[in-house]
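Provenance

Sequences were taken from public entries as deposited. Structures were produced by running a predictor on each sequence independently, with no templates supplied. The record for Dihydrofolate reductase from Hymenobacter oligotrophus is shown for reference.
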Amino acid sequence: MKNTLFRHATWLLSLGLAGCAAATTQPTTDAAASATSNAVNGLGADVAAAATPAAPAATSAPEESFKVVTEQFADLRVLRYQVPGFEQLEPQQKELLYYLYEAALAGRDISYDQNYRHNLRVRRTLEALWDANQQRMASSSNTQQVDQAQKFNVYAKRVWFSNGVHHHYSTRKFVPECSREYFAELVRGVDSKSLPLLPGESIDQFLATITPVIFDPTLDAKRVNQEAGQDLVKTSANNFYQNLTQKEVEDYYAKKINKKDPRPISYGLNSRLVKDKSGKIVEQPWKVGGLYSPAITQIVYWLGKAADVAETPEQKLALQKLVQYYSSGDLKVWDDYNIAWVHDTKSRVDVVNGFIEVYGDPLGYRASYESVVSFKDLEATKRIKAIGDQAQWFEDNSPIKPEHKKKNVVGITAKVITTVVESGDAAPATPIGINLPNATWIRKEHGSKSVQLGNIVEAYDQASAGGMLDEFAYSDEEKQRARQYGSLAGKLHTDMHEVIGHASGQLKPGVGTTKETLKSYASAIEEGRADLVALYYLMDPKLIQLGVVPNLEVGKAEYDSYIRNGLMTQLSRLALGETVEEAHMRNRQMVAKWAYEKGQKDKVIEKVQKDGKTYFRINDYDKLRNLFGQLLRETRRITSEGDYNGAKTLIETYGVKVDPAIHKEVLQRYQKLNIAPYAGFIQPRLVPVEREGKVVDVKLEYPTDFAQQMLEYSRKYSFLPNAN
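Predicted structure for Dihydrofolate reductase:
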C-alpha cells in the first residue's frame, strides 16, 4: 500500500513554519518538523432531538482581522483557515465546489462508526446533553459544578476533534475528567427522547451501557494496536472486524489474493470483515444498499450533481466512475475511478473522496472515509511543479539499487491546492500533503497526483506558537537558519515526500503489496522511505539548479529540524512510559535514531549537554546525507523485496522504544511552553445562492465556534443509525 495522505504536518510549534517533513499527517511536533514539529482526520432523527441552538452568525471578516487561533484545550488547538481566490472563481466552479462540499460532509458519520462501534451513540449522547450542560455552567454559582461542566465540555470537544473516543493521533482512549455522577445527572435531567436509546431501553439500562464505554480507560483501550506479539485485530477497537483473530484475517486474504496478479484490486478496502453465526467469514461492503448506505446514498446524490457541472470531460468521467463505485462496491471500479482521476489534469477544481488511507487498520487492508475539496493555486504550484517535472532525474539519481528503480516514471501531477473543506478522516485534524492513488500498479502505469494544501500550511504558519525552537535548538546558528529557511525547507520536504518519495521505486516481479508482505510495519516503512527520499535530495545542488532553493542552507535547516523532532520533540506527544505506535512517529524516530547510531563513530550527530539540557547537534551534514541515502537504499530494498523481517528489525529496533530519561526531560521542558502539540480546523461554510431552484452563486463564510459547527454538522449530516 501507499500511505500517502500522510498526516505528518509536524507543525512548526516554534516558528509557525508550516510545511512539513512530508505530508500525510496532521501536524506533529517539531519544525516544519518539519511543519508540525516546529510549529509545533433520512436517519438524522437519531440526533435531531438534541435541540442544539442555532449556529452563530459566521464571520466574513477582512483578511487583516482574520483570527486563526480560536481556542486551546487538552492537547489540542483549534484553528481556522482562509480560502483565498474563491471569489474569483467562475460561477460553475463555485457550484461544483458546493456539490463536492455537500458530498464530503455527507460521509461524516461513517468515520465515527469506522473508528469504534459505540462512537455515534457516544457523540449523540454528548450532543443531547450539551445545552443542559451550558445552562448549568451559566446559571450556577457553585464552583465545583462549574468545574464539572467545563470538564464535560472539554471531553465533548475532544470526541468531536478525534471523530470518536480514541485520540486522533495516538489512537489511545481518553476519558472525561468530569465525574460519572455528574454525567448521570445530566442524562437524567434531559428529555429521554433526545437520547440515543435502543428500542425499549430504560435510562438506567442506557447508563449501565454507556458509562463504561465513556469512562473506563481499559475498555477498548486502543483504536489501533501495533504492539508486537499481540493479536492486532482482537486488541484494536476499530469497527473493521467482528469476531475474528489476526490469524484468521491473514489466512482469509492469503487464500483470496493472487500474488502473481500484476494489477491487483485493493482487497478489503471498502468492507467490514465478520464471522457470522455459522462460522463463515464474510465481507460486508460499504456501498449503496450495504453498510453505511444512508450516508453513501447522500454522497452519491451530491457527486451526481457535481458530475453534471464538471469542468472537463475527464473530470465528469472520474466523478461518474466514483458514483458507480459507491453504488456497486466493486473494487475494480475503484481502480477505474482512480485511473480516470489521475488523468484529469486540466480541471482547476479537484476532490479526494472515498475509503482511502489504511492507517486505522493495523493490518493495512481497510480504509477510512475521507474527503478533501479544493482548487488549484496557480501561482504557488510553480515550485512543486518544478520538482514533479524532474521526477525521472530524481529516480535515475537515487542511491537505491538499479533493479528497484522505475525505468519510466509516468504521469506525476504536482500542484499546490487551496482547500475549501475537509471531512471524515481528514478533519478536523488535516493532512498538509497528499499523494494518491495508493495502488502501486496504477502509480506505475498511470501516474499519481501530488499536492500540498497551501492554505492549510499558511494557517499553521500564522498560528505558530513560538518557543519550541528556542527551547530545543542547540545553537544560535541553528536557530537563525531555521528562522530564515525553515518554512521553505518544510514545504520542500512535503513536496518531495509526496511528489518523488511515494512515487519512486518499484516492487520486484511476483512480490505482493506491502500490506501482504510487510503487514503491520508497511505504513511506517513507506512513510520513512518517502521521508528519506526528501531528506536525501534536500541537500542536492539540483534544487538550486531548479531555482526552488537559494542555497543548501535550506537543506541543513530541514536536517536540523528532522533530527530534533525524531530524537526529541515528538516525544511530547507521548505519556511517560509509552512506546511509539503511530506510523509517522515510528518512521521519524526510526530514521533519526538509525542515522544517529550509524554515525556515532564519526560524531555525525552528537548528543550534547548545555545548561543541564540535552541537545542533538549535527556536525557533518554531508555525511548525514550519505547515511540517509544508505537507509533509503535499505528501506527501498525491504519494500521491493517484501522483506518482513527486515522491516520488523528496523522498526522495532529504532522506531518503537523510547529513552525514558530523554522522554522525561522533553516532557518537563515542553510543559513550560504551554503549547498544544496537535491542531485542527473549523471548516469554512459554503452557502448556495439560488434563483428559481438553480444555484447561481455560492457564498463563503468563516464560522468561528468549533462546538457550534460540530452541532450544526450533526443536525444536518447525521444519516446513519446509532448501530451499524
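The radius of gyration is 24 Å.
The longest strand covers residues 412-424.
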